[in-house]
UniProtKB/TrEMBL annotation:
Regions that span the bilayer: 191-211
Name of the protein described by the UniProt record: Phosphatidylserine decarboxylase proenzyme
Organism classification: Bacteria, Pseudomonadati, Pseudomonadota, Alphaproteobacteria, Sphingomonadales
Originating organism: Tsuneonella dongtanensis
Its EC number(s): 4.1.1.65
Encoding gene (name): psd
Main location: membrane
Protein's GO biological process: phosphatidylethanolamine biosynthetic process
């Protein structure tokens, strides 16, 4: 069954399906919007008790999907000593960057330089450092936050495929996170340079950042933008959001952090919880 699912993704019109999904997700027509929201919430067991607004108060499905939480719903760990989880989700893989490569699944890995859209300079900086891949399931809170304090240094939009990013696809598609459409966000902070890579997926209707708004999806060229005096964020601040779910890949330079020993593939995370200790 899993092989059929993967083969179907190879032949499916990924971008066309995602654009179509985006139109439905942005619809303000009650006959389209309301059934989508209510059926989705029921099917995936979305916890609306922690949401800032109840089900009937969203203008579009995307408005619901990127919903804010009530104040205090995600308490933050001590960012002076720890790195914070950037999102609700589950650890897909976590570990050390070695030989310029990141583990994707058992028997599969991919190039850090390719993940960063060909940015070999920063790929070299991350050699020997730490990485974590966090998968956001459909029921999760879908805003992405800062794992540590930092100033925005550069963004790189990388066009690509739109395979699903669940566990089955990660185990069956080579270089999944380095071939899907993504937005690389590089920051400089007290723990050096770090990356938060927002990876698109099948049916994902878009990615947005708090500094630039919605990223135009499905382009054909790698687009880099440097920020000489970029906005600065504190640990736990919102940095972006997914319109329908996906994955975040974190990269840190060597000697800066150490992952908590209890974390491993499958560990469930809540935004703001401690996931690593700062060593610098």
């Amino acid at each position: 069954m899993s092989q059929f699912f993967i083969r179907a993704q190879h032949i499916a019109p990924q971008h066309a399906l995602s654009k179509l999904a985006g139109r439905f997700a942005d619809s303000r027509v009650p006959a389209i919007r309301d059934p989508l929201i209510h059926r989705f919430a029921a099917a995936y067991g979305v916890d609306m008790d922690e949401a800032e607004r109840p089900l009937g108060q969203y203008e579009t499905f995307n408005d619901f999907f990127t919903r804010a939480l009530k104040p205090g719903a995600r308490p933050l760990a001590d960012a002076a000593t720890h790195v914070l989880s950037p999102a609700d989700g589950a650890v897909s893989q976590i570990g050390r960057i070695a030989g310029g490569r990141v583990v994707q699944a058992k028997g599969r890995d991919y190039s850090v330089a390719e993940l960063l859209g060909g940015n070999t300079e920063d790929a070299a900086r991350f050699e020997g450092g730490r990485f974590a891949t966090i998968y956001l399931s459909p029921k999760d809170y879908h805003r992405v936050h800062m794992p540590a304090a930092g100033a925005l240094w550069q963004t790189i939009y990388v066009p690509g495929d739109l395979f699903s990013v669940n566990g089955v696809t990660a185990e069956g598609v080579d270089r999944l996170f380095a071939r899907n459409e993504r937005l690389v966000c590089l920051f400089d902070g007290e723990i050096g340079r770090f990356a938060s890579v927002m990876v698109g997926a099948m049916i994902v209707a878009g990615i947005a950042t708090v500094w630039g708004g919605r990223v135009k999806p499905h382009g054909r060229e790698v687009i880099g933008e440097n920020f000489a005096d970029g906005p600065r964020f504190e640990a736990g601040d919102e940095m972006g959001r997914f319109f329908l779910g996906s994955t975040v890949v974190l990269l840190f330079e060597p000697g800066r952090i150490e992952w908590l020993e209890e974390l491993g593939p499958g560990s469930v995370l809540r935004m703001g919880q401690a996931i690593a200790t700062r060593t610098q």
